[in-house]
Amino acid sequence: MEYAANTADQNLALKINAGIEELASHDRFAHASPDMVEAIVEGIGQFTAGEWAPLNRKGDLEGAVLANGTVTLPEGFAAAYRAYVEQGWNAIAGDAEFGGQGLPFSLAANVMENLGTANMAFGLLPILTVGSIESISHHGSAAQKALFLEKLISGEWSGTMNLTEPQAGSDVGALRTTATPIADGEHAGKYRIKGTKIFITWGEHDLSGNIVHLVLARTPGAPTGSRGISLFLVPKYHVGADGTLGGRNDLRCVSLEHKLGIMASPTCVMSFGDDDECIGDLIGHENEGLKAMFTMMNSARINVGSQGVQIAERALQQASHYARERIQSVRAGSPGKEPVAIVEHPDVRRMLLRMRALTEGARALLYYTAGMVDRGALGIEGALARADCLVPLIKAWGTDVGCEVASLGVQIHGGMGFIEETGAAQYYRDARIAPIYEGTNGIQAADLVTRKLGYESGAVLTALLADAARDGTAYPELVALTQDCIEIAEWMSTTASLDDKLAGSVPFCTMCAVAVAGGQLARQVTALAGEDTPQSRAKSVVTDYFARHIASEARGLKASATAGAELLYALDAAALAG
Q1: Are 76 and 62 in contact (CB under 8 A)?
Q2: Measured distance CA(125)–CA(116) in Å, rounded
Q3: Helix axes 459-471, 505-528, angle to 10 degrees
Q4: Which tens digits make up the pLDDT trace of 236-262?
Q5: Closest CA to 525 of 7, 424, 104, 533
Q6: pLDDT exceeds 70 at position 170
Q7: Catalytic residue ranges
């Protein structure tokens, strides 16, 4: 099956949910004219379909390979990445001072969506680079910006984030990697880095000229826990004061993880300072590493939420194609006796419509979030706080959507979906990592109820939900869901214990995400009202299904969201796990 970017729905989401035309009315984003937006959406769609999508299956079958300390990708990846860099796609939202195009993050999100839909594993490479750019831009010194930003923004160099250690997992405060100050010599003022990091996405590869690792470590005498963590810039190759590359730094990939999916994305175990000569440069101030890293994490979490949309779109396209082509059985109740394409059977239609509603709902939420990030960058009052509230929704629910839609895609293929040759299984395998990395979805939900819920004493989240209710006025199920969410938020803010809030956090996060996504779909329907086009007719049906089925199901989570933690602790640990 040939892949084609869903540019029609992307353009609609950019216009209605991100509000790209309103963004372009501000001087900072004045270049995001309708012609420019259309050219970018069409251009990246064609590029990814032609250059990256054909490598998706090859990457899954052959994967990344580590030999003699060097990681190589299958044939074709280097040329495809080079074309990506040369055409300027990595620089869409980069600072113009360092060679970027200075366009809205919403357009960069569109680039990322198309890259990942074409090839999710490959699309992780620019996601990590964008995060590195964010951290250095916000917290780096003038010298660090001058040396690294231009090459990272162009994509000539790539970036990583190095948080996780074998003994620490998601508890970043338990890390043991050390950073010792260097008092004299050519590296005076820098630090010797020593430690091991695991699960480092694209930590070693042969596609970019240098890899800029952002590494969390502890300086001597630093406070225990997360308060004593600092962030360091550790390049694969040393960079001279004039920007030229020097010798290899003392770091290496010691192994690649053997994974369920995303085979073409090298997930590395990285060792720093085996010979005590790994040199790193402090970003920001000592003991403020998490602050700098979370600048990177917010961007990454939105882009991982996008991965849910990406894998859902790809699985939907494949399942739709198969359903139209696969002839099997007479349709129930039909007077004829000829078998029909399975797309004619009610349950297959149910699955396809559900896949489409979830995918388009998640896309609408993605671009709404991206638009709020852009408004926050413009300094528009309230936008940054709203964007912060939206991040856990798109990351958690968006990636859950990816898993569900990919699973339904396998189901539509029937037994052939369980056979690797059809390719449907790859999307299911690839999708499963997204709810785990960049903070598990449970961590996202905990962030929502312990931090974001408290913004302005709950007013930020309540206003977001009230707007969703207003946008979804024509859909009673959406209005009722938003009211449920507001009631739960009030209970969590005034009555629930911390354990109670955390016990109900995941269903509450899902409910809020569905409510806001539904409101954004309703906005699309309103915008298309009066048109009699295939897009307007389909959007009306998809949104109606979303409200009647997905929003109604989400309302059923209220009991779980408010059940409290008592039952979770009715058994002691030994009895529960025994």
Answers
A1: no
A2: 10
A3: 40
A4: 999 999 999 999 999 999 999 999 999
A5: 533
A6: no
A7: 438
